[in-house]
Amino acid sequence: MSNSGRIWKLGDNIDTDVLAPGRYMKFGIEEIASHCLEALLPDFASTVQPGDVIVAGRNFGAGSSREQAPQALKHLGVAAVLAPSFAGLFYRNALNLGLPVLVCEAAPTIADNLPCSVDFETGTVKAGGQTYRCEPIPGFLLAMLRDGGLLPHLEKKLAAERTLERKPA
Amino acid sequence: MRNSSSIPQTLAQKIVACAAGRESVAPGEIVTCKVDLAMFHDSSGPRRLQPMLERLGAKVWDANKVVLITDHYVPANDDDSRKIIRIARDWARDNQIKNFYDSVGICHVVLPQKGHLKPGMFAVGGDSHSPTGGAFGAYMFGIGATEMLGVVVTGEIWLKVPQTILMRWNGRLSAGVTAKDLMLFLCGKFGLDGGQYQAVEFAGEAIAALDMQERMTITNMSAELGAQTGLIAPDETTAAYLRQAGAQDFDIAAWQGDADAPLLATHEFDAATLSPQIAAPHSPANAAAVGDYNERIDIAYIGACTGAKLTDLRAAAQVLRGKKIAQGTELLVGPASKQDQDEAQADGTLQALVDAGAKILPTSCGACAGYGDYRFGENINVISSTARNFKGRMGAASSRVFLGSPYSVAAAAVQGRICDPRDLLGK
What we know:
The complex is a heterodimer of chains A (about 170) and B (about 425). Chain A is α/β, with parallel strands linked by helices. Chain A has helices spanning about 15-20, 30-35, 45, 70-75, 90-95, 140-145, 150-165, and strands at about 5-10, 55, 80-85, 100-105, 115-120, 125, 130-135. In chain A, strand 3, helix 5 (about 90-95) and strand 4 form a beta-alpha-beta unit. In chain A, helix 6 crosses helix 7 (about 150-165). Helix content of chain B is about 30%, strand content about 20%. Chain B is built from 15 helices and 18 strands. The longest helix of chain B is centred in the first third of the chain and has 16 residues, at about 80-95. The radius of gyration of chain B is 21 Å and the shape is globular. Chains A and B meet through helix 5 and helix 7 of A and helix 2, helix 3 and helix 5 of B.
């Protein structure tokens, strides 16, 4: 479960309005994602590459419950977000949507633009010749993340239950 | 030794323990809770849930525990918005959702007005301001649409049992100072992550003296403090509201925290010394006393679940009665619910606002969410009674939104500048 890409650095308290601007919320994820972070980084959505990693400051994802915020990052191919802390609602949403979010105390010390690889299974990040350890994602959430998020996870679970029901006792 | 049933617990722990089917729970442990009520709106609700329900071939676990309220895309003024509202209406009908409130106000305000909240409930909302329900001694928190799908299908949700941060406000708030000022002050002091995604409980003489709608402002803005929920233990004020709202079989005495329950932190404040607070662009955490500001104001906005309930409208009217708004300044008022608007109409509050020059907008989330027509233009200076002033949220990225109480917004509308509303009261 490893990727490689470059780092995009962001500051503290990046909010959901800047990740998924309200005026585009009536549209589908493609349109919302094309405006992701535009108030801060106008070129982000058009230049971010699949496998890139966001390295941010404290309380990433502050604000709304709109899950289009992590979904937009996922849609653009962002492989993971590292931050010393996340807004609780965003953290839950990100994992539910299958976007790896890793609590990384050292995130603010990591430089912009570096090539970077992230293994969310082990919480290991390699960037600029350094290795950083993140807090591990709790086991039951990791299982959900491996399935790609809550929806595919539930789908798998319900399918397994239905198979069991069909089998004669 | 205490036996397990007498382990001292906070109010938050008691509600979570009950929902988890346990005698007690310890902060930090992960539990699965049964959900008593799931509330969502047109934006987070059916339009997101229905495709996922279809994919799973699943149904709503208990239609009686679901409350659907349209507030974000109403009134629907374009085809995309009309489609979203149509999906909500069809979904309510197809799923026999009898608790469906269509275009009668903002979900967090309508929910208790219709008698759906009770102390001790474990509830989730598809909106970040869902901690508003904590004013009634319910454990209520916001979740995203996919997580709501999980609740709607299973009736359950996982939770890391929170610790509790106690904010004790001694003394009384002075005239012209509100719950909104109190919360902006706390955002300024502790920051947008001061709540650490734990439970924040508000107590003390100043909190006990607040009416239910002011208490709702407190727990509502626990979201801005980064708490999972905000709580106020229920009392006789709560009971009186609940009786009027038609809530049945509620218990006040059972839903109190134990005095000796361990807390993450206790903070004590003197309410009497608090001044009106204003948060500068672009964060509620940029709060400071009103005396530090003198900015020119183009638009004064009284709106949203945070700042346009009946109590908020009355506060604004107290400032505006017999006055006119400044030339070149616009005053927009979007009452938080139809019921609040009707009551404001009946007692002359609304007329006082209109006479001063206010334009009355529909009862919906309006400009606060920034989803619809009411968006602020380039380089506009706004003062707003809402909860969030993040860059670009309510309009152009170059618009500058200041947050204040309804008193402060009304006063700024009169003066055309940010000013201390206490100077205008009773004059």
